[in-house]
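ARCHIVE CARD
CATEGORY: sequence design from structure
SOURCE FIELD: tokenized fold
FIELD CONTENT:
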């Protein structure tokens, strides 16, 4: 049985976080993993599961909408693992994964400003 993984990133824009996500999507064995990319609309590839409210900027109401949309997506897709990249995606996907009963959540921080 394949492990179902959703890779979540706020923006699919050129940079290190996108590179890591793409490496995982291409590099993990399709015999062992069933994966999908979940991202906001900014530069989303055609195969991505797009959450329109998922944006980089902090906007409390829009962020709540994004979290609820992520939770609904997770409940429908029933992933074994949600792997979130970047801080905002980590917070929203983490809360959404908990709401949807996802068994495992992984967070990879990117873009440290310290």
């Amino acid at each position: 049985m394949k492990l179902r993984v959703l890779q979540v990133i706020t923006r699919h824009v050129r940079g290190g976080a996108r590179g890591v996500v793409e490496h995982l999507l291409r590099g993990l064995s399709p015999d062992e993993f069933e994966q999908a990319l979940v991202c906001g609309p900014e530069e989303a590839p055609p195969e991505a599961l797009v959450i329109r409210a998922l944006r980089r900027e902090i906007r409390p109401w829009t962020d709540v909408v994004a979290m609820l949309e992520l939770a609904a997506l997770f409940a429908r897709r029933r992933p074994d693992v949600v792997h979130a990249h970047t801080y905002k995606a980590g917070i929203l996907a983490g809360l959404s994964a908990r709401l949807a009963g996802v068994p495992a959540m992984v967070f990879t921080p990117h873009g440290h400003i310290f």
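CARD ANNOTATION: The two ends are 41 Å apart (CA to CA). Residues 23 and 64 are 29 Å apart (CA to CA).
SHELF: design records, drawer C
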